[in-house]
């Protein structure tokens, strides 16, 4: 096995989040499906940006948020993602490195701009994402760093990237490298619409190469085309070694080789913004698994991180997650 340098390395979309508040009527006016992520073109995101109120710009992207969370727990994390040599690309690179995550992907000149996601938060804390993918999905197998993949305990793949053939090739190459190095591979399903687009390929990938699956309730029941969570959980148990399935206020269900553990949510006084809840749950869970914690502890770390991020606007933790977990007696 190669020398271990990272607890987790992620491959995903490098996106700058533009976060603002709105009401349900605004979503209806702009045909934005509440609580989901939709892909939009440049004119659509420009129209939304022009019509919305004040906004905050923060570097984001699902797997990148997870790696920032891993770093906040004290883990060593790295991220592979594609940015352009533009203002948003510089914002993304600076922010993720400042958060303690290794980011060695080179900025690209002369192609599409850096990706961005306009995130609209309604008064109930629900987030609706309108994502202009830009250059981030142009990642291909040539940009996967074999040495970095082989040096990570867990390789974490972001389902959102599955929309282009070259990105799928990068995933499969990463899986092959990780398996050859004796490493574990994790996948997040990312979004119910994403699952609808790639159901068959996701199931094939999960059965053939995924050791750890992360999904929320909507995503897992979509994957198995059932309205029953229990049925989806049973089928998950048959298809992968380890899964963590989040269920919002119901907490999460961890499934591993016939064992099932229910993890409660970590309570918050008010949900300010649900953006990043799943990403930060993944951070705590993967950090726990990478550092040898038992499944229940890994799940609790996920709940603590998710609760922290939904208590404020933005998808990155504002408090040190390791200290927070220590205060709660989990680390």
Brief overview, please?
The chain has twelve helices and 14 strands.
Explained architecture:
With 331 residues, the protein is an alpha/beta fold. The protein has a domain at 6-13 and 64-103 and 134-316: 3-Layer(aba) Sandwich (UDP-N-acetylmuramoyl-L-alanine:D-glutamate ligase), CATH 3.40.1190.20. It has twelve helices and 14 strands. The chain has helices spanning 24-29, 42-51, 62-72, 87-98, 146-150, 165-180, 192-209, 217-223, 229-239, 277-290, 295-310, 321-327; strands spanning 6-11, 15-21, 37-39, 55-60, 77-80, 102-103, 115-121, 127-132, 152-158, 184-188, 212-216, 242-246, 252-256, 259-263. The chain has a nine-stranded mixed β-sheet, with helices on both faces. Strands 3-8-7-2-4 form a five-stranded mixed β-sheet. Helix 10 (277-290) packs antiparallel against helix 11. The chain starts with 5 loop residues before the first strand and ends with a helix. The mean pLDDT is 94.
Question: How do the strands and helices of this protein lay out in sequence?
Answer:
Elements: E1 6-11, E2 15-21, H1 24-29, E3 37-39, H2 42-51, E4 55-60, H3 62-72, E5 77-80, H4 87-98, E6 102-103, E7 115-121, E8 127-132, H5 146-150, E9 152-158, H6 165-180, E10 184-188, H7 192-209, E11 212-216, H8 217-223, H9 229-239, E12 242-246, E13 252-256, E14 259-263, H10 277-290, H11 295-310, H12 321-327
Helix pairs in contact: 3-10, 7-8, 8-9, 10-11
């Amino acid at each position: 096995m190669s020398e271990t340098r990272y607890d987790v390395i992620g491959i995903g979309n490098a996106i700058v989040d533009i976060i603002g508040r709105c009401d349900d009527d605004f979503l209806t006016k702009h045909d934005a499906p509440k609580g989901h992520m939709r892909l939009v073109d440049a004119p659509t995101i420009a129209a939304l940006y022009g019509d919305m109120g004040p906004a905050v710009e923060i570097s984001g992207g699902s797997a990148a948020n997870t790696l920032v969370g891993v770093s906040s727990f004290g883990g060593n994390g790295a991220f592979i993602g594609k940015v352009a040599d533009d203002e948003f690309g510089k914002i993304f690179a600076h922010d993720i490195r400042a958060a303690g995550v290794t980011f060695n992907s080179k900025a690209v000149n002369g192609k599409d701009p850096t990706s961005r996601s306009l995130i609209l938060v309604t008064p109930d804390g629900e987030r609706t994402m309108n994502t202009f993918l830009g250059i981030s999905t142009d990642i291909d197998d040539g940009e996967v760093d074999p040495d970095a993949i082989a040096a990570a305990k867990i390789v974490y793949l972001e389902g959102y990237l599955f929309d282009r053939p070259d990105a799928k090739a990068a995933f499969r190459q990463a899986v092959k490298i990780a398996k050859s190095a004796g490493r574990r591979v994790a996948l997040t399903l990312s979004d119910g619409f994403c699952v609808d687009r790639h159901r068959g390929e996701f199931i094939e990938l999960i059965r053939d190469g995924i050791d750890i699956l992360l999904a929320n309730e909507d995503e897992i029941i979509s994957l198995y085309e059932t309205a029953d969570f229990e049925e989806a959980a049973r089928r998950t148990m048959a298809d992968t070694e380890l899964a963590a399935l989040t269920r919002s206020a119901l907490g999460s269900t961890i499934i591993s080789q016939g064992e099932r553990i229910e993890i409660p949510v970590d309570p918050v006084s008010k949900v300010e913004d649900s953006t990043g809840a799943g990403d930060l749950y993944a951070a705590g869970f993967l950090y726990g698994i990478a550092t040898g914690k038992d499944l229940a502890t890994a799940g609790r770390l996920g709940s603590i991180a998710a609760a922290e991020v939904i208590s404020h606007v933005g998808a990155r933790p504002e408090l040190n997650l390791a200290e927070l977990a220590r205060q709660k007696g989990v680390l």
